[in-house]
Amino acid sequence: DKTVVLITGCSSGIGLGLAVRLASDTSKAFIVYATMRNLSKKERLLECVRGCHEDTMEILQMDVTDQLSIQAAKQRIKEKKVDILVCNAGAGLMGPVETQSYETMKQIFDVNLFGTICTIQAFLPEMKERKSGRIIVTGSVGGLQGIPFNDVYCASKFAVEGFCESLAILLQHFNIHISLIECGPVNTNFMTNLQRTDPEDPKLQHVDPETTQLYQKYLQHCERVFEEAAQDTEEIVQVFMDAIGAPFPSLRYYTNTTFLPLTKLKLSVEDGTQYIKAMNKFVFSTHKTGDF
Ligand code: NAD
Questions:
Q1: Which CATH topology does 3-201+231-256 take?
Q2: At what angle do helices 13-23 and 233-245 cross, to 10 degrees?
Q3: Confidence of residue 99 (pLDDT cuts 50, 70, 90)
Q4: Is 188 a pocket residue for ligand 1 (Cβ < 6 Å)?
Q5: Domains of the chain: which residue ranges?
């Protein structure tokens, strides 16, 4: 019996990498439903699997913010079950909070939070009925600790953590495992796809000069962190494979140890002061990523 996997956000990045890895697995043990919002972007995925997907992969349209589209994709699953559901679709947002429009903020929450919840809602009843299933969510270091100028993105990813952790407690009774793959920076199109307030953006004229200056510093920090600590998609995909192969998967997997000291600091000094001090130093003073 083959393992049926459905993945969201497969037109690029981590979703694409995981779909390719599973569809071309030499064991041919997986049937992959690689879903994407916009089917006109399927060429890259097809190019990457290069013919070795005839009976292991099918591409389906699915916009995680559109209930009808989620249901339509579900109807197309021949096996009438999903063993592993991967909620990976997500979008970033960066800039001083004063520059973010209500519409944009809602859009980020729609994809990152409600998109994840609605996808899980669609497939959970069948998993519960079979008393079997796995849910894997692409998490983020930004879901574990605050990052300046990523306030809204972090809020959406924190919310995903709260949702998954809460659900995990109940799902133990149904033999369903939920795992978050907590990624640090990854070399994908995420940084080019994300909505970012450009340093030249006229909206910044309405922001105080000190914030604008700190934002410039943050952008440089961000570039440095990507240079020093970004992982390739393959490394991330390997962590997904570890979670998939584990008999009792954990709630959280950390792909990158660089940020663990900061994450731990947040938890060990409960009043939060040490974390915000350390993060301030990390982001706004010159340093090497490894110093933390
Ligand atoms: P990416 O931008 O290449 O991939 C995100 C994918 O989600 C894209 O294919 C995009 O089309 C898709 N998507 C966006 N809105 C959608 C919608 N409404 N319906 C369906 N699909 C939609 O970047 P990535 O790095 O591969 O991102 C994947 C996940 O990893 C995201 O959840 C992101 O938050 C998380 N993540 C990325 C990084 C990073 O540095 N790249 C770090 C931490 C977490």
A1: Rossmann fold (3.40.50)
A2: 60
A3: very high
A4: yes
A5: 3-201+231-256
